[in-house]
Amino acid sequence: MLPIELIVIGKPISHQTKDKARLRDWREKVRQRAIACWNGKAPLGDYLKVIITHYYDAPLGDESGVPDSDNIVKPVRDALNGVIYVDDYQITDFISRRRNLNASFRVKGMSTALAEGFCQGEEFLHIRIEAAPDPSELS
Asked: Per-domain residue ranges for the chain?
């Protein structure tokens, strides 16, 4: 069942946007993609680790039009509530990354989902959800 990976094509919308209709549409796009990938399974109730990577398209050295990572994760986490997991309080481990599509990459063991994202030739989010380590154990 885990890990699960999915991609969402398009520029993510910040939870701070003033255009609430665009934010609602983005959240629904993420939700529908998660529903399609999860195939009607019940939401998980365990502790989870979520990794979100934003592959953006910007000239190298100019990230002025790229939304901050911390502003794009909330709509994504909210969209996955009730689909992949019961509630985002279950996320005990979280990683958010940004990568410029115009940079060079060396990828070992690329997943089908990530390959699908790169093949689209557009900006996208790669979301990976996996079992989290036991939060009661310090590491």
From this structure: 4-131
Distance, in Å, from the CA atom of 67 to the CA atom of 12, rounded to the nearest integer, reads 8
Burial of 75 (0-12, 13-18, 19+ CB in 10 A): buried
3-state secondary structure the chain: CCCEEEEEECCCCCCCCCCHHHHHHHHHHHHHHHHHHHCCCCCECCCEEEEEEEEECCCCCCCCCCCCHHHHHHHHHHHHECCCECCHHHEEEEEEEEEECCCCCCCCCCCHHHHHHHHHCCCEEEEEEEECCCCCCCC
CATH homologous superfamily for 4-131? Holliday junction resolvase RusA (3.30.1330.70)
Taking the model in full, what pTM does it have?
0.93
Residue 63: which residues within 8 A CB-CB, separation 6 or more?
A: 56, 98, 100
Cα end-to-end distance, the chain, whole Å: 25
Mean pLDDT by 10 residues, the chain (139 residues): 95 94 97 95 96 94 84 95 95 95 89 95 96 80
